[in-house]
Amino acid sequence: MKLLSFSNNAILYGFVSIVNTIFSYGVYTLFVFLNYSYQIASLASIIIGIIFSFTTHGKLSFRIFNFKSFIRYASVWIGLYISNIWLIEKIQEYSSNLYLSGAIASLLIAFIAFFLMKYFVFR
């Protein structure tokens, strides 16, 4: 039964993450389109995305929505932001397309984020 619960939670998390990733990527592409650097675009995406995705994950995926969880959530995303910038820089060594680099980095970060959210933030 525990495996089924984990599986259902992972599927719901995946669906909510897709929505959150599309939203955050939309913020990122808007800032790139407005000629901000990828660092600023990523920072804006993280800040706005933290508020949006804490609400969606907290209420829908994990059904935990409190201040302690928000502090852990924001702390995790600070680390994920740094990782995201690093990934974009590494991807830029192979592709000069900031849109593609941001999309690839976002997918990798979303995968890592699930485990951090499940076992650290929303425990």
SSE arrangement:
Elements: H1 2-33, H2 38-61, H3 67-92, H4 98-121
Structural description of this entry:
By secondary structure, this protein is mainly α. It has one domain (2-121). The protein is 86% helix and 0% strand. It is built from 4 helices and no strands. It has helices at 2-33, 38-61, 67-92, 98-121. Helix 1 packs antiparallel against helix 4 (98-121). The protein starts with a helix and ends with a helix.
Protein traits:
single chain; 123 residues; 86% helix; mainly alpha
Overview in brief:
The protein has 123 residues and is mainly α.
Q: How many beta-strand runs?
A: 0
Q: Give the averaged pLDDT, no decimals.
A: 86
Measured by DSSP, the beta-strand proportion falls in: under 5%
- Number of separate helices: 4
Domains (count):
1
Query: Given the helix and strand composition, which structural class is it?
Result: mainly alpha
